[in-house]
Design a protein that fits this description.
Blueprint: H1 2-26, H2 30-51, H3 65-98, H4 110-134, H5 136-146, H6 161-171, H7 173-177, H8 182-198, H9 217-223, H10 228-231, H11 241-246, H12 274-279
Helix pairs in contact: 1-2, 1-8, 2-8, 3-6, 4-5, 4-6, 4-8
The structure holds zinc ion (2 copies).
Residues 129, 133, 142, 146, 223 line the site of one zinc ion (ZN).
């Protein structure tokens, strides 16, 4: 079991990149390859959580399971397909104003393009996430994600649809506008999606030096601390490079936060059903944190 807990993250990342590279070379569907390996990672995490949890009490629902599943359904069934369909149309519309740029690192090796895209996309996601913690209106949106008082795999999909769209618009859309080829963007997804599938896992995964590369569940646990001075750290989406650069990296260490949850509740309806939380931003009490 300890070998599985040590190898789950690196093997998942390598399997995802391998499946992507195979599909790209053979003319297969790169999207299906990445989706398939992500689902295997997700399923393995959900299965392992029942058998070897980091915190057994986090396996017990606290009236939050319906919110987590509904959020998952809305993101996977509506928000993501809408963004996938609408993003190219938005980019084409913006081209009417700005003209089409020369192309992103055209002529460079695929690995160089992939590395550059990973760094830029993660930079956008890092700052969007950090702003969601410092701007009251954005914190209100982000509170849905931090409202859970336990950490387990499904928390990964507990995200306000508007927050999801904002993050997409400010991190990936500029790269699409810049002419980043679709396979490079998918390569970035292949690299980072396994990390995100495991980021909230209730598992005692052993990451070692990978804690200095990926935003692992051990690091992300600190980010979900119910104490602000502990939680204002580790904003990285899948990589920790920008936390290191901007001084917000907190090592995993031997300890873990004493309490998981919101550190600034204000009038946010944290215990209300999913749709009440989602729509609360349109109500007068919004953003009074
Ligand atoms: Zn956060
Ligand atoms: Zn999180």
């Amino acid at each position: 079991m300890s070998l599985l807990l040590t190898l789950l993250l690196p093997v998942s990342v390598l399997a995802s990149l391998g499946a992507f590279a195979w599909a790209r070379a053979s003319g297969g569907s790169m999207e299906l390859a990445v989706l398939g390996t992500s689902l295997v990672t997700l399923g393995t995490a959900l299965w392992l959580e029942r058998r070897h949890p980091y915190h057994p009490d986090w396996n017990r629902p606290r009236g939050d399971a319906a919110t987590d599943w509904l959020s998952f359904a809305v993101l996977a069934g509506a928000v993501q397909p809408l963004l996938k369909w609408g993003s190219p149309l938005v980019v084409l519309a913006v081209y009417q104003w700005t003209g089409k740029p020369a192309g992103f690192l055209s002529g460079q090796p695929f690995a160089v393009q992939l590395l550059a895209v990973a760094l830029l996309a993660e930079l956008g996601k890092y700052w969007v996430h950090r702003w969601h913690h410092s701007v009251p209106a954005l914190w209100w949106l982000h509170a849905l994600h931090h409202g859970s008082e336990r950490l387990y795999t499904l928390n990964n999909f507990r995200v306000h649809p508007l927050e999801y769209a904002i993050k997409h618009t400010l991190s990936l859309l500029p790269l699409m506008w810049w002419g980043v080829p679709a396979d490079v963007l998918l390569g970035y997804v292949a690299l980072t999606q396994p990390v995100q599938m495991l980021q909230h896992a209730n598992l005692p995964l052993r990451h070692g030096w990978l804690n200095h590369v990926f935003s692992t569940n051990a690091l992300h646990r600190w980010h979900h601390s119910g104490l602000r001075h502990e939680g204002d750290c580790n904003f990285g989406s899948a990589l920790v490079v920008w936390d290191k650069v901007f001084g917000t990296y907190r090592p995993a260490g031997q300890q873990a936060p004493a309490r998981i949850g919101l550190y600034s509740v204000g009038s946010y309806p944290a215990n209300q059903p999913f749709f009440r939380q989602v729509l609360s931003m349109f109500q007068p009490a919004c953003c009074r944190t």
